[in-house]
Specification:
It is a single chain. The protein is mainly β. 11% of the residues lie in helices and 33% in strands. It has 1 helix and 7 strands. The strands form 2 sheets. The protein has a 4-stranded mixed sheet, with helices on one face. Strand 2 and strand 3 form a beta hairpin. The chain is globular and about 35 Å long. The two termini are 19 Å apart.
Length: 123
């Protein structure tokens, strides 16, 4: 699967972290990825309750981060075939710097600033 994102949004809200890679450019008020047919990737993770280190992407599969750069997010889904998911986009250095800690947190590469223990699960 490949997706060329026109919009990238990374959000932190309490113990909830989310990144949306959307193939349609929309205003923040319009964004409801569950309510439009255009391709998108929504990756999120919450730390309110221990969930075994799983990320949420509209799927129960575990994910392994392959690459996050200013131009590409690549991760593998734990399944027999079609494992690699790639999302292409263009972020400025400032946008990348803002999104990187949230992406690393979602994929289990860092802990939230509050010091809560995430667990030792490898994604």
């Amino acid at each position: 699967m490949q997706l060329h994102a026109k919009r990238v949004s990374a959000v932190e809200s309490g113990d909830y972290y989310q990144a949306i890679f959307d193939s349609e450019a929309q205003d923040d008020e319009q964004v409801d990825p569950f309510d439009h047919p255009a391709p998108y990737v929504l990756v999120q993770r919450e730390f309110e309750g221990f969930n075994g280190g799983k990320c949420y992407i509209e799927s129960h599969d575990k994910l392994k981060l392959v690459e996050f750069s200013p131009a590409r997010l690549a991760y593998e889904i734990a399944r027999p075939d079609h494992k690699l998911v790639e999302v292409f986009f263009a972020l400025t250095a400032a946008e990348f710097e803002e999104a990187q800690p949230i992406i690393e947190l979602i994929f289990g590469l860092r802990e939230p600033c509050g010091g809560d223990h995430i667990g030792d699960d490898t994604l």
